Amino acid sequence: AEYMGEDTQYKMIHAVIAAVLVAVLVGLMINVSPRTSSNCNDCHFIGEMGNQFVEEDVVLRGEAFKVLKSREWDTNRDTIVFLHGFPDNYLSFSNQMLFFANRFNTMSVSLRGYTPPPPNTNTNNWDFTIETATKDFLEILEMNVKRKGSIHLVGHDWGSIVCFTSAAQHPLMFASLTLVSVPNPSRFFSSAIQYPKQFALSWYMLFFNFMWLPEKWVQSCDGVTFLWNQWSPHPYSSIRLDNVCATLSHPRVVNAAVGYYKQNILQSIAKPPLPPIQVPTLGVFGLDDGCIAPETFKLAMSTADFAAGMVLEQIPNAGHSVHHEQPDVFNKLVLSFVTNHKSI
Predict the structure, then answer these.
(1) Would you give the DSSP letter of residue 64?
(2) Residue 2 confidence (pLDDT) above 50
(3) Helix, strand or coil, per DSSP, at residue 267
(4) Whose CA is closest to 94, among 228, 312, 243?
(5) Secondary structure class of 233 (helix, strand, coil)
(6) Which phi and psi (to 5°) does residue 155 adopt?
(7) Mean pLDDT score of the chain, rounded to an integer?
(8) Of 334, 336, 327, which Cα lies nearest the Cα of 81?
(9) Using alpha carbons only, what angle is made at residue 313 by residues 307 and 314, rounded to the nearest 5 degrees?
(10) Does 340 have pLDDT greater than 50?
(11) Roughly how many angstroms between the first and final C-alpha of the chain, as a whole number?
């Protein structure tokens, strides 16, 4: 990935600022109505999840995490680990957890900061950089994944970036990598320059760098509803919306969720690219994604950056949360890919 000169960086920042000002002035004044549906493909965490999975609380360096994993763990099986993004929580992949449970060990982890801290815990650590989130994620895997088989990573949004970074740092640890809706982070800004519409879609990234207002907006649930409406033209379940809004209503959690943007977005412009990925990679995106444009996703996924091979799959009638909107199609694509890269 190439470095960008100062002139290019300034032009990019000015374009994003202009998009932000327009979107904030117009968007935040709109009466936000949820686009909910009675169809609940993503509500499997209610009832039946408790029969097959066990939920554990993990505290790592004062930070709390939720870990949802197979109740009957078979060390001879490969393991699929799911990591959610924003705005979401560790139950994001409930449909996939159930779908893969008969073939793999499955586990879902909350991102750093997305679980309220235990009582009387010192929460003065406000480090939500990708480097620290990746370190946490890898340690949780080492603590929880006891296996002879290999590990397959599936990450969405910020979870995609953490999984990408994990695979770049420890390629021998993983059998496959699936990036959902967010592509290679090292190529994102250079790809956005080639497809300028992405700057308008990414207005929220700069808005989230403002003081206190973004946190209040997301915490009220209006922010979650607005972004879900913008990022996909398709309806979502009210149960899922209520569950995610409950997660983000906690002051510590919403500060962490917005903190990822404050501590990573502008800083990433000057970062050197990550090394080529030595893990077979699947990139999945929805053709109706209003967050990361399909054009941006494809531009950012250069085969040169994936030494072990890379496959792109686009799903019609799906937006940013493609694993919720078209779970059957998504599950079959991932199953085919990970099956081709199973170690056992």
Answers:
(1) E
(2) no
(3) helix
(4) 243
(5) coil
(6) -125, 145
(7) 88
(8) 334
(9) 140
(10) yes
(11) 35
pLDDT of amino acid 79: 96
Other CB atoms within a 10 A radius of the CB of residue 117 amount to: 17
287: confidence class by pLDDT, cuts 50, 70, 90 = very high
108 alpha-carbon distance from chain centroid: 12
Q: Which has more pLDDT, 317 or 148?
A: 317
pLDDT at 303 over 80: yes
Strand order, beta sheet including 105-109: 53-60, 63-70, 105-109, 79-83, 151-156, 174-180, 281-286, 310-315
For residue 46, the one-letter residue type is I
Is 72 buried (19+), middle (13-18) or exposed (0-12) by CB count in 10 A? exposed
CA-closest candidate to residue 229, choices 288, 179, 284: 288
| Contacts for 336 with CB less than 8 Å, ≥ 6 apart | none
Mean pLDDT of the region 171-187: 96
Closest CA to 247 of 80, 116, 102, 94: 116
Amino acid sitting at position 314: Q
Q: Give me the helix-helix angle, 238-248 and 222-231, nearest 10°.
A: 130
Parallel, antiparallel or unpaired: strands 79-83 and 151-156: parallel
Distance CA 312, CA 285 (A): 8
Residue 11 pLDDT > 90, yes or no?
no
236-237 vs 105-109, strand pairing mode = unpaired
Q: What per-residue confidence (pLDDT) applies to 39?
A: 60
pLDDT tens by residue, 90-109? 999 999 999 999 999 999 99
Question: Which residues are registered as beta bridge partners of 315?
Answer: 286
pLDDT at 123: 63
